[in-house]
Write a structure and sequence with these properties.
- The protein is α+β, with helices and mostly antiparallel strands.
- It is built from one helix and five strands.
- Strands 1, 2, 3, 4 and 5 form a five-stranded mixed sheet that branches.
Length: about 90
């Protein structure tokens, strides 16, 4: 059973928003390392700056898996062979 992610903030009108879950009726656990007794649920479209760690965790938890497994590693255009870090060494 997965727990639903909710948005939390310290203070209702300003501050940093965090993603987290409600455990045991009144204890909030964030997706990042933020700990505070003042965390309270807030609406999605409120004037809060989103915590970067929580944003990353939210993306990881809500992005569906690739159907064919992980995508193939490819270097960006024009970066050369070293961008893929093939692990081969060259003899000098």
């Amino acid at each position: 059973m997965s727990l639903p992610l909710i948005r939390l903030a310290i203070g209702r009108t300003h501050g940093t928003a965090h993603y987290g879950v409600l455990l045991t009726g009144s204890e909030f656990v964030t997706a990042c390392a933020t700990h505070s007794p003042d965390l309270a649920p807030i609406a999605e479209r409120t004037a809060h700056t989103l915590c970067q760690s929580c944003a990353r965790a939210w993306l990881i938890l809500t992005t569906p898996q690739h159907t064919g497994g992980e995508p193939e590693i490819r270097p960006a255009a024009g970066t050369g062979a070293s961008a893929t870090a093939t692990g081969r060494s060259r003899a000098t």
